[in-house]
Design a protein that fits this description.
Strands 1-2 form a two-stranded antiparallel sheet. It has one domain. The longest helix is centred in the middle third of the chain and has 18 residues. With 95 residues, the protein is mainly alpha-helical. Helices cover 52% and strands 4% of the residues. It comes from Pedobacter fastidiosus. This is BlaR1 peptidase M56.
Length: 95
């Protein structure tokens, strides 16, 4: 979980998981893009809309626009280095 400026992990072993760390770093970038507080408001609002749309937690969570960007690019360890600011506004690969 990313709560600016920290990444919180369930176990120390996850520090070595480059994809998880990259996923969470993408969230840190998103938080900066949205001036931190707006990110959390928009994230929650998007989740609630998705919960009404999909009816279940997992689908609602996976369809949050911020999660789509993070999951789509977590394996690309150079994604953040190339810029890609406001990537969550672009069409997701999983849409």
């Amino acid at each position: 979980m990313a709560i600016f400026p920290f990444i919180l992990l369930k176990s120390a072993d996850l520090k070595r998981d480059a994809e998880i760390i990259n996923h969470e770093k993408i969230h840190l970038r998103q938080q900066l893009e949205m001036l931190i507080l707006l990110f959390y408001i928009f994230y929650l609002f998007n989740y609630l809309i998705n919960r009404l749309k999909y009816g279940e937690h997992y689908l609602a969570y996976r369809n949050i626009i911020f999660e789509k960007e993070a999951y789509d690019h977590e394996r690309d360890l150079n994604y953040l280095k190339r810029g890609n600011w406001f990537g969550w506004l672009r069409k997701s690969k999983t849409s």
